[in-house]
Amino acid sequence: MTEHYYSEKQTSKLRIKELIITLRGNNLKFYTGSGVFSIGEIDKGTYLLIDNCIIKDDWDVLDLGCGYGCVGIALASEVSSVLMTDINERAVKLSRMNIKVNNLENTKVIKSGLYKAIKKKYDTIITNPPTLAGRKVCFDIIEGAKEHLNKGGLLQLVARHNKGGKVLEKKMNETFGNVEAIAKKSGFRVYISKLL
To answer: What percentage of the chain carries pLDDT values higher than 90?
Structure first.
């Protein structure tokens, strides 16, 4: 079986790389590693999402499919709480290390396949969905968001517009009755739907 960053268990040798970067005005340190998405750097889509997502200081944030945690950790100082989740056990381990190294008390990470372990509702769900995992997984993320958002809450998603993003934008509109692209760069767009 081929190993992917969205697989539960990683068998490749863990090679850790350190990344020191400024996100949303904060100097942050990350451990990234083999077997997780975008090792050693933050990809363009994730950058766009971090820079342009809508958040408020009293919000509880769900970072779904967090990888090594760069999105949730970048937002942590501006919100009430962050829960990060990933199916990938190695991603969960790296996220724990990154929460600790950045001294975050309002942020935690749990292992969860999509929404399986999610017990409450959030003000926003932020995700860079694993488009390589296929359309069904991405559609499940969009449809499942409705049950895990507070009224008025936002699903915020980044994708390459011409490589699946158009389809996800359409699905968000069908599911929520609204969608808006709030940012675009390098072929990526950040799409937002609101739970009315």
So the answer is: 80
